[in-house]
Amino acid sequence: MGKVISLNEKISGDKKGINHDDTPSLDLLSNLVGEDLQSVNRVILERMDSPVGLITQLAGHIIASGGKRLRPMLTLASAKMCGYQGKRHIELAACVEFIHTATLLHDDVVDDSELRRGAATANSLWGNKPSVLVGDFLFSKAFQLSVSDGSLRVLDILASTSAVLAEGEVMQLVTSNDTETSEDSYLEVITSKTASLFSAACKLGSVVAERPTPEEEALASFGLNLGIAYQLVDDALDYSSNSKNLGKAVGDDFRDGKITLPVLLAFRRGTENERKFWKRTMEDGNQTEDDFAQALNYMNYHDTINDSFKRAKHFGEVSKDALELFRYSSEKKALQEVVDFCIGRTN
């Protein structure tokens, strides 16, 4: 069974100084929102409590084994940058995290994943049925929080985003194993299944601060393009040695037949024989032990991994440009550094 790790160990917001070298990090963001993030942590602990022990145990496992809490931190920092002084952003940040965690549970079941961020997935420990049902529980908790906020605008943003997330997952199923998928279709998938929640997380900060429409749209654009860049880097890292930092085995996407940008570019640029290779391995699922190495050879020859990183850098710059509407502040600087951190994972 999975060990439930104290969320206080995981969602702490590092307060021990800011990164002093030139390596992009989340240190500034963590320092700025650390106290609010602790409040978000308390809301998560309270709201995921249930008399059904399995729910608390399984939900605690996936939440506590999570990453850097980037999405809720985006909500907290966006609200601060917009001058918000209240407390609504705390529960909304928790809401964003619940939605994100619910999608992780469902994704791992769909992908039959055994590892997430280096730890055993909930479905590998408790099975698919409990994972799906607890994911539904977390979605329900997210909407309880959004309803208790009392704003129809907030409820509309989060409900619409949840629908888009689900559509993105279905679109990915449709394009999975299809080497004829266009780059536009691929971008539509990652915009829906990843970037839409980044966008909503940022937009909520301006909504609670009651900022004018141009600022709402700017923050929504910042989050959307950041999310696209983030997923582009993730997909490229699956074919690089750095993917070990993602907490999953190198080449998982290849073995699962996921059509991501490095594959799309290699297929488009390849010879007829190379395309036959991609169709056999990705469409037919007929893979041998040496096929992943061959896939890397084709990708390196056509430079598709580096080109994927270049695409990510483009969307990162678009994301940064969206923040130019706002005056300088520590929060603005921290959000700009988030972009550098996400893109910097290419190194």
Task: Summarize the structure in short.
By secondary structure, this protein is an all-alpha fold.
What amount of the residues lies in strands?
under 5%
| CATH topology (level 3) name | Farnesyl Diphosphate Synthase
Shape: globular
Helix percent band: over 70%
CATH class: Mainly Alpha
Residue-averaged pLDDT? 88
CATH superfamily: Farnesyl Diphosphate Synthase
H-E order? HHHHHEEHHHHHHHHHHH
Q: Over the alpha carbons, how many angstroms does the gyration radius reach?
A: 20 Å
Give the number of DSSP strands. Answer: 2
Number of helices: 16
Strand line-up across the major sheet: 1-2
**Which CATH architecture is right?**
Orthogonal Bundle
- Structural class assignment: mainly alpha
Number of domains: 1
End-to-end span in angstroms? 36 Å
What about the largest sheet?
A: 2 strands, antiparallel
User: What ranges have pLDDT less than 50 throughout 5 or more consecutive residues?
Assistant: 1-20
